[in-house]
Design a protein that fits this description.
This protein has about 150 residues and is an alpha+beta fold. About 20% of the residues lie in helices and about 25% in strands. The protein has one domain.
Amino acid sequence: MNVGNLVIPDEIQLLIDREIWPKNSMEMQELKPFFSEDIVQKIAPEMSVICFASPPFSTIKNMIDKGDYFWLDPNIDNSSVDLALVVDIGDFGMGTDTSIALDYSKNIFCPSVIRLEWYKHNPDNPNITKARWVKISDSFSEFCRMLEIDL
């Protein structure tokens, strides 16, 4: 499976075949989560559910080119990544605006797994938040181990 010239880790197809990764709706995963809240919070302490996107996947740049301007929000710091090399693979549920992605920026053959993390930017005004990309794991295999998925 590829997104342009980016090779999606083989483990994702394996998870699709095992019906751990959805072939359709992300919303169904919120109703019947595959991972316990405890496991999710090892990766993102403020979150409670992980929802994987169903293929075909897309780079964030491609999403922007198709009119998804969320990614251009001035409160999102994209300076640490190349959006043409970041493939969106899921999020932490509806309304979180917190993507989970494969980042090929540092290694075109073995992407790390990153996520958007929202944080309070101004302690004097807690309503102002910003987002930055943070690394979850060095590889998709490591991400699976963190989620306690046996490959």
